[in-house]
Amino acid sequence: MIAFLTGRLAFKAPTHLTLDVQGVGYEVFIPLSTYYALPNLDDVTALNIHTHLREDAIQLFGFLSQSEKDAFLLLTTVSGIGPKLGLSVLSSLSVSDLISAIHSGDVDKLSTVPGIGKKSAGRIALELKDKVGKIQPGLAPVSPSEKSGLDGPLDDACSALVNLGYRPQDAKAALKRVAESTAKPLALKELIREGLKELARG
């Protein structure tokens, strides 16, 4: 099973991308949350991968953060929720919003996802309420007392990485390494991209 891929971003679209790994192109289906955080074409990208085996195909689903992958795997344990619907949920709700909706039993919020009706939303809330704790902690919005201590764009980039599911302390450390290794100030999008690269390196 493929669990992780690092390669050159050869193609990207809102629903899928092609990752060139040493000359082999992997088609990977992605949620919008991952699409919006992707780097430019030809840049190196690291993705957490779920390999889905069907009778007639092998499909790869990719996520920039481990928490997105964890949420996706939990969603697909619910009766009637397949991989495509799982991606639809993560394209409509952030991981933190999804966890909040499940905890509070907010069926109305869950049913705003395309393809998820009231009945499916109810199943998600009921079946996952005791399981969402398995998703990485630290996904709630950062409170003022948890501010990163970084200035300007660095602080905004840190918040973006935390919302993608990374721990505040890890995001802060990665962005500090980026800042120290760069001679000129980077735009917010570049900071997020470079921060993701640092986090992927561990």
Question: Can you describe this structure?
Answer:
This protein has helices spanning 32-36, 66-75, 83-92, 95-104, 107-110, 118-128, 152-163, 168-181, 188-201; strands at 4-12, 16-21, 24-29, 44-53, 58-63. The protein has nine helices and five strands, in the order E-E-E-H-E-E-H-H-H-H-H-H-H-H. Helices cover 45% and strands 18% of the residues. The chain has a five-stranded mixed beta barrel with strand order 1-2-3-5-4. The chain has 202 residues and is of the alpha+beta class. Helix 7 packs across helix 9 (188-201).
Ordered list of secondary-structure elements with their pairings:
Layout: E1 4-12, E2 16-21, E3 24-29, H1 32-36, E4 44-53, E5 58-63, H2 66-75, H3 83-92, H4 95-104, H5 107-110, H6 118-128, H7 152-163, H8 168-181, H9 188-201
Parallel strand pairs: 3-5
Antiparallel strand pairs: 1-2, 1-4, 2-3, 4-5
Helix pairs in contact: 2-3, 4-6, 7-8, 7-9, 8-9
Keywords:
202 residues; single chain; alpha+beta
- The helix count comes to 9
Backbone shape: globular
C-alpha end-to-end distance: 22 Å
Radius of gyration from CA coordinates = 17 Å
Write down how many β-strands occur, each being a DSSP E stretch of 2 or more residues.
5
Structural class: alpha+beta
> Major sheet: order of its strands?
1-2-3-5-4
Largest sheet: 5 strands, mixed, barrel
Which stretches are poorly predicted, pLDDT < 50 over at least 5 residues?
137-149
Order of helices and strands: EEEHEEHHHHHHHH
Strand content: 15-25%
Helical residues, percent: 40-55%
Quaternary: single chain
How would you state the average pLDDT, rounded?
84
